[in-house]
Amino acid sequence: MAAAQGRLSDGTGGMDEQKGAEEEDRHAEDTAPPAFTAAVEALRAARLRPQIEVEATRAPQRLAPYAYALEAAVVDGDDDLADGRLVLLHDPAGHEAWRGTFRLVTLVRAELESEMAADPLLPDVCWSWLTGALQGRGLTYGEPSGTVTRASSHYFGGLSARPSASQIEIRASWTPREGLGGVPDTGAHLASWCDLLAQVAGLPPAAPGDASIVTLPQRRGPQSR
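^ DUF3000 domain-containing protein, sequence as received from the core. Prediction below:
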């Protein structure tokens, strides 16, 4: 998943940076509250559809006392159809804006056909993909917030041979409902997030789903990894 790694971080440090991040994560988990440790273990144990490659990455350090991050790419052969990041935050003291002690923060993005990107209803549809993915797995959550951004790139001069490109980006966060022992079902939330990634990538649903959910039309083409 090297391409997704490069697009979501500055790419410096290579394997040394990844090794350092893993060592930091292990150290943080050694001192973390049991609820956070259990939530992270549930993320690691989640079973996901084979087209989605997931790996741990360096977590942000200043958003919460404890954090764990994953990066993912929807893969078709040597091509990435969509990519994203999911971050689990935990503040044992609680957070007023979250209305809970856990928070999930996400970034998802993919390229679009220009005609699709021009649809004025696209942001509303993309947000419904996120909420629909959570509801489709029966998850309870609170305080959702986020943005849906469309961006178009037009190339000039030495790059004029490149075709114009459009991209959709979904940034969102929500508070997962805490269950037994104050631990949210993070494995199910990860699975629902992967459902969103697959939908943005234009993959068919893994199982019969809600007919009201709109599937993304075929994009201009996969981005080479």
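The first strand starts at residue 52 and ends at 57.
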